[in-house]
């Protein structure tokens, strides 16, 4: 990793310095964040857009299944394109009656028109080329056209704390070569949304030092409470994430009923927040227990979590940053289908910031015991860096406005 000037690679069709025009420090920024399976990628990029919009003109691509978000203090523009998602490992239109080829062509037309209108100074591509390989035929032309309409555009990759493709990945050699080749051909820098003291990049990508464009860690991108009031406590919250673990909700309900039968719930209520996609009635198992309540996905989840006595969830990026932000007692049951969740849950448990229960061990009896133990504990203290959205803004300004931008601090070293 080079930690010097965020230079443009010789192979780029990019001329000029890449800095904002003289006398103007308000950047035009286009953010491409495409969730396919769940909500995590879009939610993280939304928080980055929120921070950037405090100082810059921001446009956020909106092309997955709709995800409700809190109203930002500083408005930014959504760029709607035909919606796609992943079902059974295949990219498909969200509209079941649409043709995928026609949808993808229309998306490209929409991107080209938007680029010609916006002429962005900065283009941020979320998680590619570390994932989203199936969208390469969309993303690479997007980058190429951005460089054609604005030769000085800076193209930055945006990456979560634990990317796919660890050293023991069965496709590791080809994955490594693909990522490095694409980064060096198409990108000017990489922003990694982690605290390296908790999850260093080279722990999951041991060849990170071969990346020849600047790489900087931003801290975790975490939603903030702001002035939103938290309700009174007395709830244990179960959240299902964008890609639910099927066994989680029924095991939680069974464990809660066991605890209630022996008077161990302390008068609390179990509140299950349902996933954002699909009919709610299909997700909520029937329950005649008045101490168990099912609620729809909400933009006010963070205040509810802050007031909760305990969180039971999977270990997705945004859920874990919510837990760290609120310092809520938590039990993490990672979804084994999501490659980042197990390592993240184990790392938080090792630091004493959560309890870890593997999905293979998810029985009502074990979960009930974990709930009792967790409720007897104290809220965790920590110094994990949760200023990733604001630090992302600072780094973009540093790399894209200064005549000779350099990374100062935040390099991906613990």
Molecular shape: globular
CATH architecture of the largest domain: 3-Layer(aba) Sandwich
Mean pLDDT: 86
Residues in helix, %:
25-40%
Q: What is the H/E string?
A: EHEEEEHEHEHEHEEHEHEHEHEHEHH
Number of helices: 12
Distance between the termini: 15 Å
Residue runs with pLDDT of under 50 for 5 or more positions: 2-23, 166-170, 404-414
In short:
This protein is an alpha/beta fold and 414 residues long. 33% of the residues lie in helices and 15% in strands.
Can you offer a commentary on this structure?
- This protein is of the alpha/beta class and 414 residues long.
- It folds into two domains: 28-222 and 386-400, Glycogen Phosphorylase B (Rossmann fold); 235-375, Rossmann fold (3-Layer(aba) Sandwich), CATH 3.40.50.2000.
- The chain has helices at residues 40-52, 100-118, 136-149, 172-186, 201-204, 248-261, 280-283, 301-307, 317-326, 341-350, 364-375, 388-400; strands spanning 28-32, 57-62, 77-80, 84-87, 90-93, 122-126, 154-159, 189-192, 215-217, 235-239, 269-273, 292-295, 310-313, 330-332, 355-356.
- Strands 3-2-1-6-7-8-9 form a seven-stranded parallel beta sheet, with helices on both faces. A six-stranded parallel beta sheet has the order 12-11-10-13-14-15, with helices on both faces. It has a two-stranded antiparallel ribbon with strand order 4-5.
- Strand 11, helix 7 (280-283) and strand 12 form a beta-alpha-beta unit.
- It is globular and about 70 Å long.
- The model is unreliable at 2-23, 166-170 and 404-414 (pLDDT under 50).
